[in-house]
Amino acid sequence: MLALPVTWWKPLNRMEKGWVLVAFTWCLILTVMMPLWFFIGRQNVPVTTYRVTPVEYFETVNAFVDEYRVDTLNGVPVIGADRSVAGDPLAVAGTESGTRGRLHKPSRLCLVSH
Fold first, then answer.
1. How do residues 43-78 score in pLDDT, each as one tens digit?
2. Max CA pair span of the chain
3. Which residues have CB under 8 Å from 69's CB, separation 6+?
4. Angle value at C-alpha 53, between 67 and 102, nearest 5 degrees
5. What does the buried/exposed string (b/e) look like for 30-68 if buried means 16 or more CB atoms within 10 Å of the residue's CB?
């Protein structure tokens, strides 16, 4: 193997310095905008938290599965939507007609049947 020369790089030319300056300026703008987007923007950040024991969560999930199960596929319950909310993609099964619930990514516990 041959060693690299002591000065293996060449100084940046005018065009390259300009692009480095543009990239650095854009990084600074985005760094400043991140907290501004959080405080000024109308973000839908999920900050609601709940303290639930695993037993309570399991009971709640199983009650939901028992109420809305329409079929079972390979041992996994298939959950059906209420007819009053079936046409609304943002509605959640189990909500009253004309209202909207919160839709969160389900846990693997939702797939457990008893």
1. 666 667 778 899 999 999 899 888 888 888 888 888
2. 75
3. 77, 78, 79, 80
4. 50
5. eeeeeeeeeeeeeeeeeeeeeeeeeeeeeeebbeebeee
Structure-block tokens of residue 9: 């790089």
d(CA 26, CA 31): 9
Q: What is the pTM of this model?
A: 0.36
Which amino acid makes up residue 103? L
Q: What tokens appear for 74 in the block?
A: 């390979």
At 9-36, the pLDDT tens digits run: 888 999 999 999 999 999 999 999 988 8
Q: Which residues contact 94 (CB under 8 A, 6 or more apart)?
A: 64, 67, 68, 82, 101
